[in-house]
């Protein structure tokens, strides 16, 4: 899910397209480089821009601005950069992404940046089997033709309605809207499996307008970054120019005066700039004092926004319980999505990843390691993978 962006302008505003740097992936990642100051040779910064948040959006923003010679003050509330991207290097040589893992085919900005930074990628197309009462192989499970026709018509309708109508549709859950339009309960459950990995929540919790807009060109997962997603955040940090980073100092207020913006942090530090760009999650905006105040629409948006609940874990196994390459499957058990998470070719240890979202998150978050292994074992058993799980570590 993308972070919302708020942009505050001085008398000489800079124009930055939100899609230029937010259309990446959400994120977290690299440990503190306290006091880092990276400056381009022979450059004399013309302006100072304050960037709030050191996630992937904040890093990319700073990267773009610094390249133009603008001085950047990047403020991060924690001791690490990258947001929700975090990669663990296992002793087996596999890289385990605890946060964002795949890059979608439609993420042209992300793919362009990866090439620009000299990173390498590997192909991994998600083509998942399903256990929903019975085992169904990839390509054999989908909604009925009638339901697909309903969906196609609704996508076309959404593209034609005006903004006022879209706002009304935004207040209705996707699940309830499709039920009203005549889609069967069976097909709604199949759609829930199909889209749960992307949204990280049930269709009952998602805006009808949001999902219908996405379905016009729905993302397809097909790429991983070699060395894990944290390679991207590290490469961005090492490529920053004209940038000073403040760690472990949350922002408490943003004051927009005549010709400048002043940001005050929890330590009492005051930073002045000609503009301020916030890449913070929307639900953090209301914890900051803004002057002038955020307008009603921004406040309501920050209060209404709901972030995905996703639980992710990995089992290191002595032997793979699956028989096909690029194994992945959805199931109706607590282990909602399981897959071959190995990144090292011919690794002796095999890696099984599990992602559970929505209400399943609460189940996994309160489970012991033994219970998590049992949930995964039951899911594999339903999929016909009956080998004993020889777990080396979790």
Topology:
Blueprint (H helix, E strand, L loop, with lengths): L5 E3 L9 H5 L7 E2 L5 E2 L9 E5 L3 H12 L3 E5 L4 E2 L5 E3 L5 E3 L5 E2 L3 H9 L4 E3 L5 E3 L3 E2 L8 H16 L2 H8 L3 H7 L4 H15 L8 H8 L5 E5 L4 H9 L4 E4 L4 E6 L4 E5 L4 E4 L1 E4 L10 E3 L4 H9 L5 E8 L10 E4 L5 E4 L9 E8 L1 H7 L3 H14 L8 E3 L1
Parallel strand pairs: 4-5, 4-18, 5-14, 11-21, 15-19
Antiparallel strand pairs: 1-18, 2-6, 3-14, 7-8, 9-13, 10-13, 11-12, 15-16, 16-17, 20-23, 20-24, 21-22, 22-23
Explain the overall architecture.
- With 394 residues, the protein is an alpha+beta fold.
- The protein has three domains: 48-120 and 225-304, FAD/NAD(P)-binding domain; 142-220, no CATH class; 308-393, Polyamine Oxidase, Chain A, domain 2, CATH 3.90.660.
- It is 30% helix and 24% strand.
- The protein has twelve helices and 24 strands.
- Helix 4 crosses helix 8 and helix 6 crosses helix 8 (208-215).
- The longest helix has 16 residues, at 145-160.
- The model is unreliable at 1-45 (pLDDT under 50).
């Amino acid at each position: 899910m993308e972070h919302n962006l708020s942009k505050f302008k001085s008398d000489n505003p800079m124009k930055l397209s939100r899609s230029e740097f937010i259309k990446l992936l959400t994120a977290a990642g690299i440990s503190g480089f306290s006091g880092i100051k990276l400056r381009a040779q022979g450059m004399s910064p013309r302006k100072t821009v304050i960037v709030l948040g050191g996630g992937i959006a904040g890093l990319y923003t700073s990267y773009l601005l610094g390249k133009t010679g603008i001085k950047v003050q990047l403020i991060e509330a924690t001791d690490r950069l990258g947001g929700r991207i975090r990669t663990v290097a296992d002793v087996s040589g596999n890289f385990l992404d605890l946060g964002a893992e795949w890059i979608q085919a439609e993420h042209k900005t992300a793919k362009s940046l990866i090439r620009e930074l000299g990173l390498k990628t590997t192909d991994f197309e998600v083509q998942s089997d399903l256990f929903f009462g019975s085992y169904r192989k990839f390509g054999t499970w989908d909604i009925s033709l009638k339901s697909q026709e309903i969906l196609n018509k609704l996508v076309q309708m959404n593209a034609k309605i005006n903004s006022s109508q879209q706002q009304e549709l935004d207040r209705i859950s996707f699940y309830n809207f499709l039920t009203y339009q005549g889609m069967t309960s069976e097909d709604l459950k199949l759609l829930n499996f199909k889209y749960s990995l992307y949204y990280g929540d049930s269709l009952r919790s998602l805006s009808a307008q949001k999902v219908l807009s996405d379905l016009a060109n729905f993302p397809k997962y097909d790429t991983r970054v070699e060395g894990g997603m944290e390679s991207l955040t590290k490469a961005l940090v090492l490529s920053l120019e004209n940038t000073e980073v403040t760690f472990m100092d949350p922002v408490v207020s943003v004051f927009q005066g005549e010709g400048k913006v002043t940001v005050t942090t929890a330590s009492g530090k005051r930073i002045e700039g000609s503009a301020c760009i916030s890449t913070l999650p929307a639900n953090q905006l209301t914890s900051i004092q803004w002057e002038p105040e955020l307008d009603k629409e921004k406040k309501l948006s920050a209060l209404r926004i709901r972030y995905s609940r996703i639980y992710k874990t990995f089992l290191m196994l002595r032997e793979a319980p699956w028989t096909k390459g690029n194994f992945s499957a959805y199931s109706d058990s607590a282990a909602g999505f399981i897959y071959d998470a190995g990144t090292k070719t011919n690794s002796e240890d095999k890696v099984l990843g599990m992602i559970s979202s929505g209400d399943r998150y609460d189940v996994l978050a309160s489970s012991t390691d033994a219970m998590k292994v049992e949930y995964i074992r039951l899911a594999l058993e339903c999929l016909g993978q009956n080998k004993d799980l020889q777990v080396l570590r979790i």
